[in-house]
Design goal:
Length: 139
C-alpha cells in the first residue's frame, strides 16, 4: 500500500510547473503536480501509457486535438496512450494528482511555445514525423 498527503507533498516553482513522482507501482507512477497561475505544459503525449489527472484544488484547461475541457476541483481527465495534450493553468495555484501507467511511460513532446528555451529532441521529431498531430491548442 502507498499513502500520501498531497498537501504535504506539494512543491512550487514560479518558473515551471513541478511534477513530483511520489512512487512507482505496476508499470506506472503517481505524482503530485503543482502549477502556479498561468503556467502551461508542453504539448505532448505518452505513446505507450495512459495518463490520468485529478484536480484537487485550483484548475485550468486541458487541450487535445479534439477540443478542450475545464479542469476543476473534483474533476479528472483520462488521456489514452498516444493522445496529445497540453494543460494551461488558471489564475490560481493548482494541485493535481497524476497517474501514468502502461508498458512505457516515456513522453514525446510536440512543442512548448511558452518556454523559449525548449528545443525538440530527435526522438520527438522522429515520433511525430511518423504520427502527425491534428489541431494544436489556440494560443
Amino acid at each position: 500500500m502507498h499513502s500520501f498527503d498531497l498537501r504535504a507533498e506539494q512543491v512550487w516553482n514560479p518558473q515551471r510547473h513541478v511534477e513530483k513522482i511520489l512512487g512507482r507501482s505496476a508499470g506506472g507512477d503517481f505524482t503530485v503536480a503543482c502549477w502556479e497561475p498561468g503556467q502551461v505544459s508542453p504539448n505532448h503525449c505518452h505513446p505507450w501509457a495512459t495518463e490520468i489527472y485529478f484536480c484537487f484544488e485550483g484548475g485550468g484547461v486541458m487541450w487535445t486535438p479534439e477540443g478542450s475541457v475545464d479542469v476543476t476541483p473534483g474533476r479528472f481527465v483520462v488521456h489514452p496512450p498516444g493522445e496529445v495534450h497540453e494543460y494551461t493553468n488558471g489564475p490560481q495555484r493548482t494541485l493535481l494528482f497524476r497517474v501514468r501507467y502502461g508498458e512505457d511511460v516515456a513522453t514525446r513532446f510536440v512543442d512548448w511555445p511558452t518556454n523559449p528555451d525548449w528545443k525538440p529532441r530527435p526522438v520527438d521529431t522522429e515520433y511525430f514525423a511518423a504520427h502527425p498531430v491534428g489541431a494544436t491548442p489556440p494560443r
